[in-house]
Design brief:
The chain is mainly alpha-helical. It has a domain of 108 residues. The chain is 68% helix and 3% strand. The protein is built from 45 helices and six strands. A six-stranded mixed sheet has the order 2-1-3-4-5-6, covered by helices on one side. Helix 32 packs parallel to helix 34. It is elongated, with a radius of gyration of 38 Å. The N and C termini lie far apart (101 Å).
Length: 845
């Protein structure tokens, strides 16, 4: 021990006397002499005389080249791993100053130091100055440029190795293949594979494992398997690489079969093998299989491995065993931010938001600083719970930690503010992003759509398209939903044309959105055309088309499609039955409705929810079975909602059942005292019965409570611009032409047999005034504008915010025959297709 201490002190003095400005001389020299002693270079020489001899030989310039190169090699390695670039440059300067002659290994170590530490300029200078080179010389430069993200230089250097006549060995091939995978230059894998075959390395396990990684990263599992079969002596790395390829491509069965073969060959799994096997269990959603691998990992003492533990947490969480995942997490001896973030994410995305919050705060208490992924999961929990204040606090922390401009975190912030109804905050976050990506744009568009700001969503989509940002499946699905809400069919058709130019033309979710958009915009034929050309229909596809038929009053078509869905083996869900029951309600198919309502529980195990009961109440009530509707409400297993009572109230208005209607209105007003529709429907029912005193009382109550009747509004889209009309609205710039068209329609429809129904005017006014007030209803103004603006024969599509009155329905039937056009009107309940004097609802709505 004393000798070693004397030795270290002596060498330190030599180095310091040579003015070599090292800050870590003792550590470096200690490592150096440990190596010298371990190889017993000169075991019989006295340490003191050895040091003196070194000093003397150094002073006269006679340093042993082997010794000098070896010393510098150790120091360069130390700088690469520990002390850094500045120390490395100092040592390099000492080499130049002392005129030391380095061997090829020392030169390669120096080159590797500069490359690994990111100084490619000095690395190239060293490369150019090297007196000789071998294949290993090129590898550090390839790795260095790859580390800096240079896309062309590594491949160019690889070609130069071959061009300059250097031998391409397995290490060179493995290095360039790793670079190709890391940089996602996967198209070059075949080129490298060709070189490998040409030079006879295709059976090498080292090269084969790298080729397997390259092909699997490209999704070419069959090619990866061919490489695997060609390896003569497969080691655990080769087997694990192929198992990983199967697991990551979602082919869990293939991974399990290969693992069985590996065990038959007598190889023991390593931690990476277990990680891939657990991924396979996750893809198969087989928690019992995952548990068996967990037990195997315990037996092999691999359960404490970081990667195995993370894979266990992922497997249990995704296969529904979040408590088991937490148990594994609690067993971690050292938890870094990645493990914490992973567990928080699992809780947040599995709907256990309170647990996610609790774990996030525990991470802070454990002095582990959250990263952007931790915050993104935390913000997801905030958005799901509508926890605006917590989201604001997280926003403040993100600003302090300088994560504010991170696109991933900012997208989560935008989503949080949007779901909390604060698009102004979301817009502020978005506007400050230096380079928003497709996720950021999509978060804004989805936020606008969810809050009903369809026009803003369309404007932002236009900007996104002009900015050449990649439009994804989420973008198309969301913007089509905006078109559906606005009934903006022209813009929806333009987006459909844009989709046709992309690979999303065959994408099922995008096509589902197209079906929904066309159905809600009034073109059920276009909806069917999209549906009919789809190669695959999921449950969303079937539901979109069934609900589309139902919305358009095409009950028989909706029921026929539902039966066809059953025949194909698709299992209906609760949304399917909402569409079916609505179809029965719209057509008055009472027996069919009852049959489906009972089949839902008896045949498919679906418990009816409030929407199903509302459909049944509307079906029974509209057909005059008010007592049966009331009994159904009384027998419900839960408290009826305001929607249910409102449906019964609407039926009472149609059938003029004042007593039950009054009871229904009372129930509605008990839940929502300022509900405008209940007051209006009750007032209309009293007016239809001639009880004007009760009408006056209702209106007085409405004034007292500040409840105002929603005015009737209608919209029509002409050349991408939406025009709106109110009752007796004279503000439109084309009002003169509209009035002329209305007068012509009034005259021509009377000739066609239309007779005004003055009873629908629920005001105590003169008969002539009643007829005149009918012709200024908003939908008639919109239709008149469509007739003077659209080319002859072009369908006219109108949206109305209230239910179409009986007289307008009768008048529009006559209009469709007079003008020889299809007129489509979407009111608050459904679509009406008027053509040749008839309506698709067959006068039942």
């Amino acid at each position: 021990m004393k000798k070693c201490g004397y030795l270290r002190n002596s060498i330190s003095k030599v180095v310091l006397s040579d003015k070599c400005c090292f800050s870590t001389q003792a550590v470096q020299i200690e490592e150096f002499f440990k190596e010298c002693e371990s190889i017993n270079r000169n075991p019989n020489q006295n340490h003191k005389s050895f040091v003196k001899d070194y000093c003397l030989r150094k002073q006269i310039g006679r340093i042993d080249p082997w010794f000098d190169s070896y010393a510098y090699t150790r120091l360069f390695q130390s700088c690469t791993e520990k002390t850094g670039l500045i120390e490395g440059k100092n040592i390099h300067g000492h080499v130049i100053k002392s005129g030391s002659n380095l061997d090829l290994f020392a030169w390669n170590t120096l080159l590797n130091m500069y490359s690994k530490l990111g100084n490619l300029m000095d690395a190239e200078m060293v490369f150019d100055e090297m007196p000789e080179k071998n294949t290993a010389t090129w590898v550090p430069l390839i790795q260095g440029y790859a580390q800096l993200g240079d896309l062309n230089k590594p491949l160019e250097l690889f070609r130069r190795i071959h061009t300059y006549g250097f031998e391409l060995n397995p290490f060179a091939f493995s290095t360039i293949l790793k670079v190709i995978v890391d940089m996602e230059l996967l198209g070059h894998v075949n080129y490298i594979h060709g070189c490998v075959i040409k030079l006879g390395f295709e059976s090498n396990a080292f090269v084969g494992s790298s080729l397997i990684d390259g092909y699997s990263a490209n999704g070419l599992i069959r090619d990866a398997r061919e490489v695997f079969e060609g390896i003569l002596e497969k080691d655990i790395v080769s087997w694990t690489g192929m198992i990983t390829a199967y697991a990551e491509s979602g082919k869990g069965d293939g991974a399990l079969n290969l693992f069985s073969q590996m065990r038959e060959n007598g190889l023991k799994p390593n931690p990476f093998t277990f990680t891939s096997l657990l991924k396979a269990s996750t893809s198969l959603e087989d928690v019992e299989l995952g548990k068996s691998f967990h037990a195997f990992a315990l037996k092999m003492q691999n359960e404490s491995n970081y990667f195995v533990g993370s894979a266990l947490v992922d497997m249990y969480a995704k296969c529904g065993g979040i408590e088991d995942a937490r148990m594994v997490f609690n067993g971690f001896q050292e938890r870094d931010v990645i493990v914490w973030s992973f567990m928080i994410s699992r809780y947040a995305w599995s709907g256990e938001y309170e647990e996610a919050f609790g774990l996030f705060f525990q991470m802070w208490q454990a002095s582990v600083a959250p990263n952007q992924f931790s915050y993104a999961s935390f913000l997801h929990a905030c958005s799901s719970l509508g926890a605006l204040e917590l989201g604001k606090q997280a926003h403040g922390h993100l600003v302090k930690l300088e994560f504010y401009s991170d696109v991933f975190v900012s997208s989560a912030l935008i989503d949080t503010y949007a779901k909390c109804g604060r698009m102004d905050y979301a817009e502020l976050v978005f506007s400050r992003l230096p380079c928003p990506n497709d996720v950021s744009w999509n978060s804004m568009i989805v936020g606008y759509v969810q809050l009903g700001f369809g026009e803003e969503a369309l404007r932002l989509f236009q900007k996104m398209h002009e900015s050449h940002v990649e439009i994804t499946q989420v973008t198309f699905s969301s913007i089509l939903r905006a078109c559906a809400c606005l009934a903006a069919m022209e813009q929806g058709t333009q987006i459909h044309s844009l989709i046709a130019k992309t690979h999303y033309y065959y994408d099922t979710p995008v096509n589902n959105a197209l079906v929904d958009m066309y159905a809600k915009c009034g073109s059920i034929r276009d909806a069917w055309n999209v549906f009919n050309t789809m190669s695959y229909h999921d449950i969303v596809s079937w539901n979109a088309m069934i609900n589309g038929y139902s919305l358009h009053g095409l009950g028989p078509d909706a029921l026929e499609l539902f039966e066809k869905m059953i025949e194909t083996g698709s299992k209906p869900n609760h949304i399917s039955f909402v569409g079916v029951l609505c179809a029965c309600s719209n057509m008055g198919l009472v027996s069919k409705g009852r049959e489906y309502f009972h089949a839902m529980t008896n045949d498919y195990g679906i418990t009816p929810c409030m929407e199903h009961y509302s459909c049944m109440v509307r079906l029974l009530g509209r057909s005059g079975r008010l007592d049966e509707s009331m009994k159904l409400i009384e027998d419900m297993p839960f408290e009826p909602s305001v929607t249910l009572w409102r449906a019964l109230l609407g039926a009472c208005v149609v059938h003029k059942n004042v007593n039950l209607g009054k009871l229904s209105a009372q129930r509605v007003l008990e839940m929502e005292p300022n509900d405008e529709s209940a007051h209006v429907l009750l007032s209309n029912m009293y007016a239809a019965s001639g009880r004007w005193d009760d009408v006056a009382l209702i209106r007085k109550t409405m004034r007292k409570r500040g409840v105002r009747k929603e005015p009737g509004l209608s919209w029509i889209e002409i050349q991408g611009k939406v025009h709106s009309f109110g009752v007796d609205d004279t503000s439109h710039p084309e009002m003169r032409r509209i009035s002329g068209m209305l007068e012509w329609l009034k005259r021509e429809t009377r000739k066609a047999g239309y007779v005004p129904d003055r009873n629908v005017v629920l005001h105590d006014v003169e008969e002539d005034q009643k007829e005149q007030s009918l012709w200024v209803h908003s939908e008639r103004l919109a239709i008149a504008f469509g007739l003077v603006s659209l080319p002859p024969g072009c369908p006219i599509r109108i949206i109305k915010n209230l239910r179409v009155c009986l007289d307008c329905h009768s008048a529009i039937k006559s209009m469709s025959k007079v003008v020889e056009r299809q007129i489509v009107v979407r009111d608050m309940n459904r679509f009406h297709h008027f053509e040749d004097g008839k309506c698709s609802c067959t006068d039942y709505w």
